[in-house]
Write a structure and sequence with these properties.
Strand content: 25-35%
Number of domains: 5
CATH class of the largest domain: Alpha Beta
Radius of gyration: 41 Å
Distance between the termini: 41 Å
Organism: Flavilitoribacter nigricans (strain ATCC 23147 / DSM 23189 / NBRC 102662 / NCIMB 1420 / SS-2) (Lewinella nigricans)
Structural class: alpha/beta
Keywords: Membrane, Transmembrane, Transmembrane helix
InterPro entries: Aerotolerance_reg_N, Class_I_gatase-like, Double_TM_dom
Protein name: Aerotolerance regulator N-terminal domain-containing protein
CATH superfamily of the largest domain: Class I glutamine amidotransferase (GATase) domain
Strand order of the largest sheet: 17-16-18-19-26-25-24-21-22
Length: 676
């Protein structure tokens, strides 16, 4: 047994006071005359013996009552495994309020049980102690130490949130909050179901802050989730079936059968079909999305799955342009084959200009620019084209046979890309077509068919720097490059080593290659705008910005909320940061003026919580190591008593106080009912 405040033991010296009172307590007697002295002696002897016995018992009761009263102030305890520290304490309690805590445990949501555990932890400490109540939201009001009463109020306000944090980040936040105070006795508690995908506390080593884990286990449930979806092509086309790939995951140990998938867009809900997913597997399904009008679309994929439902819907949004704008910059005469190719596809809007009459400010309006046999490229044009490609544009370059190599080399090195070298007057035939790359992928039904590949009467050489990240699209039989691709920033540079002139190059006569090549180049994109964002991942959203007068404040609005995101304007772009402001999955519109919607975005809940695999008690104990404590308590055990015993040992002051009252009552009974 040990004492929390041993200095109070000096008060045991007051035990001498009852003894002194007992020894010096003299009672005066009256003289009574009796005729028969023998009877008086018998009464006196009997009364004196009983009085002494009563007085001794009263003295013992007083001494014991006073001794146990002193011990109550000394606060004796029987220490447990953990060290007991005296003085004020700083306590941090993390309550996992993520979606997985909505699961049931004995018909009670885990979050309700977690809140009850948190209350009992706070109540197990004293009113002079300080507390932090932390959740997955990481709100500012949860970053400071508060009183016991305020901590209980914060616990009562907790609700389920879409946010989810790795527990290592939680521990860091707890330690940061505890360090803000001047209290040395610090302890942290984590109340969670300890899913495997968020529990990353391995071999906890900090001995200055006690870490206590309170696991809550739910009934194991089956779960099927829509993980993600993406369009197969970077640009969605009008009046065509646009393949949408959907990834559905089975997170249980049993095969899932007859999972129904449906899609809603443009005001209609269409069933896609049913699927069977093997246990712990992923299935990819393709949905053809028919687009009949240009403009903005919001769409929703859904499956039928119980009881976990937060990941059964996947929201996505996309835009469909009415036209793809293409600019052809001619060095001298236009190429009639090039113009015919673009004008033959109604989806393209073609503009042709001479290199001397260019308006650089209009470059961002085009998705693709073609340089057709320019003799030289000025430094100004080179800079604007590099900016165009970096910001997501596609640039196709056909050099002139009479090209001034110095200007082309300076232009290409700025990307950077491999540079043209001297003209080689030699007949060559293309022998290899890269059908694995997007430009020629899925163009030909039979890749092994005998295609008529282009040939040339001559070509420029091309340097071969390893750091230029070149991807050949067509190569000559001798290995020289005919057409190459470079990923530059958010866009692409396509570089031909041969002019487009039919006198030198037969490409324009190979329509089965030339037409799809131009089409796929125009719709390709080095940066594909995300069709959906994930709540809580603090993703940066990019939108177009047009210069306007007055105060510029972008706003996002959803079904039930409207807020101002963080915004940074850079040239013709505005970058938005939503942080923790999006709370509900769904669609959000961006606007400056309420009646003018600029963009639309879709947000989905984080799928981390979809995997309902939990650490068992022994696995968790082995993971965190010996410096962390695992508190396992049966549901019918008073949790506050367990916490109190862990923090203070088995406290005995209550028993001392009870015994004090008992002996005081015994003294009263002796004096009242034992008559002498």
């Amino acid at each position: 047994m040990q004492f929390l405040f041993p200095t109070f033991l000096w008060a045991l010296a007051f035990l001498a006071i009852p003894v002194i009172i007992h020894l010096f307590y003299f009672r005066r007697f009256r003289k009574v005359y009796f005729t028969n002295v023998r009877f008086l002696r018998e009464v006196k002897e009997d009364t004196s013996a009983r009085s002494k016995l009563r007085n001794i018992l009263v003295l013992i009761a007083r001494l014991l009552a006073l001794a146990f009263l002193v011990l109550a102030f000394v606060q004796p305890f029987i220490p447990q495994d953990s060290e007991v520290k005296a003085g004020r304490k700083a306590i941090s309690v993390f309550v996992d309020n993520s979606f997985s805590m909505s699961a049931l445990s004995e018909d009670v949501p885990l979050l309700d049980k977690a809140k009850q555990r948190a209350r009992e932890i706070v109540q197990a400490y004293g009113v002079e102690d300080r507390f932090q109540v932390l959740t997955n939201d990481f709100e500012g009001r949860h970053q400071r130490l508060v009183s016991q009463e305020d901590a209980l109020a914060l616990i009562d306000e907790l609700t389920v949130t879409p946010n989810v944090r790795e527990l290592s980040k939680v521990v860091t936040r707890q330690q940061q909050a505890l360090e803000t105070g001047d209290i040395e006795n610090r302890s942290t508690y984590i109340i969670s179901d300890f899913q495997k995908n968020i529990t990353d506390i391995q071999d906890y080593a900090d001995t200055t802050v006690a870490l206590n884990l309170v696991p809550l286990q739910a009934v194991q449930e089956r779960n099927i989730s829509i993980d993600s979806a993406w369009f197969d092509a970077p640009v969605q086309m009008l009046n065509q079936n646009n393949p949408l790939v959907v990834q559905v995951r089975n997170l249980s140990t049993q095969e899932a059968e007859n999972i129904r998938l449906s899609i809603r867009y443009d005001g209609q809900t269409k069933p896609v079909g049913t699927m069977s997913i093997p246990a712990e597997s992923v299935v990819l399904d393709t949905v053809n999305v028919s687009i009949l009008r240009p403009g903005r679309y919001d769409a929703e994929l859904a499956i039928t799955d119980y009881p976990v439902q937060f990941d059964d819907k996947y929201y996505f949004a996309f835009d469909v342009d009415e036209k793809i704008d293409v600019l052809v910059v001619n060095g001298s005469l236009p190429n009639r084959y090039l113009e015919a190719a673009f004008q033959g596809i109604s989806y393209f809007e073609l503009t042709t200009q001479l290199s001397q009459n260019l308006d650089y400010s209009r470059f961002p309006n085009y998705q693709m620019i073609v340089l057709n046999e320019l003799d030289a490229i000025s430094s100004g044009l080179a800079f604007e084209l590099q900016e165009f490609v970096n910001n997501g544009g596609n640039l196709l370059v056909f050099p002139s046979k009479n090209a001034q190599l110095a200007t082309y080399q300076s232009f290409l090195s700025g990307f950077p890309a491999n540079e043209l070298t001297a003209w080689e007057e030699q007949v060559r035939e293309v022998g290899n077509l890269n059908t694995e790359e997007f430009i020629f992928r899925d163009v030909f039904e039979n890749r092994n068919a005998n295609l008529i590949l282009p040939s040339s009467q001559g070509n420029f050489g091309l340097t071969n720097y390893s750091n230029r990240r070149e991807e050949p699209l067509m190569q000559y039989r001798d290995g020289n490059r005919y057409l190459s691709k470079y990923q530059i920033g958010k866009g692409h540079l396509y570089l031909s080593t041969v002019p487009l002139n039919e006198e030198v190059n037969s490409l324009v006569r190979n329509g089965e290659i030339f037409i799809p090549m131009l089409y796929k180049m125009a719709i390709s994109s080095g940066y594909q705008k995300p069709i959906a964002y994930t709540i809580g991942q603090d993703e940066l959203i990019e939108a177009s910005h047009e210069t306007q007068s007055g105060e510029i404040v972008y706003k996002l609005t959803g079904d039930d909320e409207e807020f101002i995101p963080e915004q940074r304007i850079v040239g013709a772009k505005v970058f938005l940061g939503v942080g923790e402001q999006v709370k509900e999955a769904g669609f959000y519109q961006l606007f400056l003026n309420q009646d003018d919607i600029l963009e639309q975005y879709a947000f989905n809940y984080d799928r981390k919580e979809s995997d309902l695999a939990y650490y068992g008690l022994e696995e968790l104990r082995s993971l965190v190591g010996p410096n962390a404590s695992l508190i396992e308590v049966a549901d019918n055990t008073p949790f506050s008593t367990v916490i109190e015993e862990r923090s203070q040992g088995i406290v005995l002051w209550r028993w001392c106080l009870a015994l004090t009252l008992l002996f005081l009552a015994l003294e009263v009974l002796l004096l009242r009912f034992w008559k002498t």
